[in-house]
Every structure is written in structure tokens, then in C-alpha cells.
Amino acid sequence: MPDPDPLLDLAPVLDHDVVVVGAGPVGLLLACLLAQDGIDVVICERRRGEDRRSRAIGIHPPGLDALEHAGVATAFRTEALALHGGDVLSRGRVLASLDFPEGRRVLVVPQQRTHALLRERLGALSATALRSGCTARGIRDEGRFVRVTVDADQGRRELTAAFVVIADGVHSGFRRELGMGWDRRPGRAVHTMLDVDDPAAGTRALLHCEPDGLVESFPLPGARRRWVLRGDRDGVAEGFRTAVAERIGTDPDIPDDARPTAFVAAQHRARTVVRGRTALLGDAAHEISPIGGQGMNLGWLDADRLASAIRIALTHGSSDLREYARRVPRSARAAQARAAFYMAMGAPARGLPLHAREALIRALGSAPLGEWSAGLVTMGGL
Ligand SMILES: Cc1cc2nc3c(=O)[nH]c(=O)nc-3n(C[C@H](O)[C@H](O)[C@H](O)COP(=O)(O)OP(=O)(O)OC[C@H]3O[C@@H](n4cnc5c(N)ncnc54)[C@H](O)[C@@H]3O)c2cc1C
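Above: inputs. Below: predicted complex with flavin-adenine dinucleotide.
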């Protein structure tokens, strides 16, 4: 007779199958995928209200596939603005035009709405899975299960589970505490962004790779537009508007009371994403520069992989997440290489480097390479 499985022995006495720390877009999607399979998951989120930060807007086809697996893609399609393509410009000339065919369009949804749609879906799958105002304070791997200490309305308590997933964002306290490493990768620069009303926003993104640095302009749903500018113009509408106008040669419609926000686009990767029964997920596992808009989408692809790995492990009573641990760094490496390339294309440049860059962008947008480039931009192959 084979030995009885240690986890199957314990399953009835554990509080949950999985505890997820952090209800950002990535932790939420993982919770949806697990709950949909009948896995007992709780997700602890220290915030009580909404996360109002304006961050991700682009949902690439592989990200949409992950949403599809969680049964929520239709809700996203209904709200989204579908980007039909993008144009890359420099010094007043269009260097490349990429078209996203039907079925491979990038969907644009502000991150606050993404949170709301995922929370709604999770609520429909399990009314008790999401614990808002619940801060995880400690994680202890006991070998056969994991113990998570949380502070919530009822005070401090311990939850036991077969697995814990750390999805607590780029500044992850648990990644540090568990010594999972955080290595800086190439690609770092300050940018400033601003979302404004624009009734003529259209359905194409414009990327100006100018001598003084990048200006991006993306249509948003609800007749709005996002501007992103390389450089720090935090808080001052006038300085932001002047910098955009000087770089692209036309005056953008930006009201005086607009408040642009600066952010550092940077890249890091955790040295390891699995330790025993604990897995890192999303920005806690890798920071991908927002230039290229892949961070949340990559987190969703990882969530899909992790949900499968956990499902199989629970079925067999094992703790084996090795396949997940192998795949995450591989796709993060590829996404970071692409993002570093996009950032190089948007760096200030003059003279020969500028001419070389313009020639390269023209080549990438030309007939033989255009389809391949559009595939890369929309996260093909990740
Ligand atoms: C300007 C900008 C634009 C971007 N644009 C795009 C884009 O277009 N496309 C794209 O794919 N990505 C984009 N990104 C990246 C994207 O925003 C992130 O990749 C994404 O938010 C990561 O989600 P997450 O769930 O891993 O982490 P987060 O969204 O950071 O969520 C982590 C959650 O954990 C909670 N938490 C932390 N500690 C604890 C604790 N101890 N206990 C309980 N809860 C805790 C936090 O309150 C938070 O809610 C952009 C980022 C920026 C800055």
C-alpha cells in the first residue's frame, strides 16, 4: 500500500486551499480562476476602498485569453475601446504604421474598471473570497501547509492553507522578508502621464519618438486620451503642455487645472518565485516598464499558469510548483527585453543615433516585418 498522501490527510483541517495576499488585478484574476474550479480561495486586501491610481490601460490578446479562462472577457469587451493599431512618428513623419487585425486588437480599459470587473466576477463565484481591510502580517511555511497571520476587523488571526500566493505588488514586503531577491534589469527613466477629455480620441495610438524624447498618446474609453511624456513634468499642466507641443509640433488640448503625474519606469525580477508552498505573482515577481504596457498582462498569464499548477498539485496532494517557477522568469525576461527596446526607441537622441533609430523603426514597420512587429507589440510569443 502506498503511503497516505500528507496533504490529503490534512485537507479537512486546513482553513483554505489557497490564501492570496493582495487584490490587485493579478491576485484578483488568480482568485477568480481558482474559485471557478471550486478551489477554496481567500484573497486578503489591506485596502478597504478602491485603488484609484491611474495605471494600466492596455489589455493585449494573451491577457484577454486569461480573462476568457476566468469567464470575464465578455464584460471587458463590452466596456473597452478597441485599438485598431498605432503609428510611430518622428520629426513630423510617420515612420511605421502597425494594424491590429480583428481578434488581435488591444483593448483599452482603465485599471480602476479592471479592478471593478474582476471583483464583480469574483463576487459572483464566491461571495466570501475577498476580504477587504485584511492585512497579511506574516507567512510561515510549516512544510505540509502554510500559516498566514492577518490583521482584520476581528483582530489578529491565523489562516492555514495548502498554498499562499504573494501578489502584494512591486514593493512586496513578503518578497523581501522571504529573501527571494530583486535584481535590477536594464530600462529605467522618469515619465509623466496625464488623462484628459478628448472627444476626437479615435482608435489608434500615436508614439512620437522625438529627439527630445518620447510622447505617447492613447485613446481611452469615454472620449478621453492618455498622454505620456518622457521626463519629469509632475504636477504642472503648463510645463507638460509646452513639452508635448515642442516635441510633436502641435498644441495638445490640456486644461490649466490638469495634474500630470510623474512615475519611474523601471525593471526588476525576483531571483526565485517559488519557495516551498509560497509563490510570488504579478508585480511582486517582476516589474516590467509601463512603456509597452505589459506588466499587468504578464501577471495575468502567470496567474493562468499558477492556477493550473495549483489545481494539479491539489489534485495529487503535492506541493510541486516547479513548472511555474521555470516559466515565470523566462517570459519576464522576454517582456523586459521588449520593454527595454521600446524605452531605447523613446530616449532623447540626436545626429547619427537618431537617424539609425528612425531607419530601424521604418524597417520594423515595412511590409515584410510589419506583421511580426505587430505580433511583438501585442505580446505575441509570451
Ligand atoms: C503608469 C503605469 C501604466 C501602466 N500601464 C500598464 C498597461 O497599460 N498594461 C499593463 O499590462 N500594465 C501596465 N502597468 C503595470 C500594472 O499597473 C501592474 O503590472 C499591475 O498593477 C500589477 O498588479 P498586481 O496585482 O501584481 O499588483 P498591485 O496592482 O500593486 O496590487 C497589489 C495589492 O496588494 C495589496 N497589498 C500589499 N501588501 C498587502 C498586505 N500585506 N496584505 C494585504 N494586501 C496587501 C495592495 O494594497 C494592492 O492592492 C502600468 C503601470 C504604471 C505605473
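The longest strand covers residues 155-166.
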